[in-house]
């Protein structure tokens, strides 16, 4: 590894792209796998957990890594594409080592691990060489000035790296997860051991947990929700998009579902109940009841302000739905849609109604998945209105809603785990 830096801190590696020898990106770094045997044996870095196409996580041995610099990781290009399966003797640095309580005997300081430094030994193996520790706040007055102080020390000067904790915190892991996209955070949470996952779920705020739940498999969603108290579970469901909340509640036991719906805010529960009233695998069941809806007297500037909302998906931000009052679904008479591309060419002070596309065919709530797919494909759309027999807008179906329902069950984790980490592909 000719140009590798002397030392790399793992938290800075997470999210870096991984390239093959010809410069094509093959994945991203998600974690490092180390072998922590005892307090007297230097922990050896076994490899990286990389996320490749399809959100699959694979194991990249350090022997396949040819270079690490400040912005990327290079490999030999020969990678085992089987799904990563953690072994009992292995520890994930980000997933399990961060927030571990350790002690520095020379100073008597106790704190939590917030980063780990690795470097190459003389035999070319990568090893843990430094541990970054954030000191616990002192209860007394003597060390008050050192509250929250950080220390970066040699690995041998720390006790507790090899000890598993039953009640390990999650502060620094949460900080790492909050830097990731929800889908990436969901993948990491899926791979955590059960006790670590529980600590992370407890520490995430409701909005972030809702974002992550939407990206997890149905099995993971149900398991996580079942371990929350009913009040918090209802709060998290309120933060989810209504269509995702409806899908999740439909997977719960009927008594649990009824309890959570009663605990939710009435308006949020009403949207979910309405979605659950439609037959499965129809436009009504998969639609989003909260697209961007404006009245005919709204200006182009109003419309552009609404679609700038960072919480909107690109598909939902592509169209503005123009209706007569009331503007909450089911709305008054649906008048048509305004395409964001058209609005960008109009004067901000002009009315949205002047840029209306009233020729777009709408979907009925009973339309099948195949019918929705054909409709979007025929008209080259990323979203389409769902309208009832009286011309009231009920919601919108987006291409991402469609894909979630068309992909086979368990698509998020379709790769089969394997034991042979030496099987490679170029």
Automatic annotation (TrEMBL):
* Residues annotated as domain CBS: 356-414
Which keywords appear in this protein's UniProt record, sorted alphabetically? CBS domain
Q: Which PROSITE patterns match?
A: CBS
Keyword Cytoplasm on entry: no
Would you say which domain of life the source belongs to? Answer: Bacteria
Statement: the UniProt record of this protein carries the keyword Protease: no
Descriptive protein name: Magnesium transporter MgtE N-terminal domain-containing protein
Say which species the protein is native to.
Answer: Nocardioides caricicola
Upper taxonomic classification of the species? Bacteria, Bacillati, Actinomycetota, Actinomycetes, Propionibacteriales
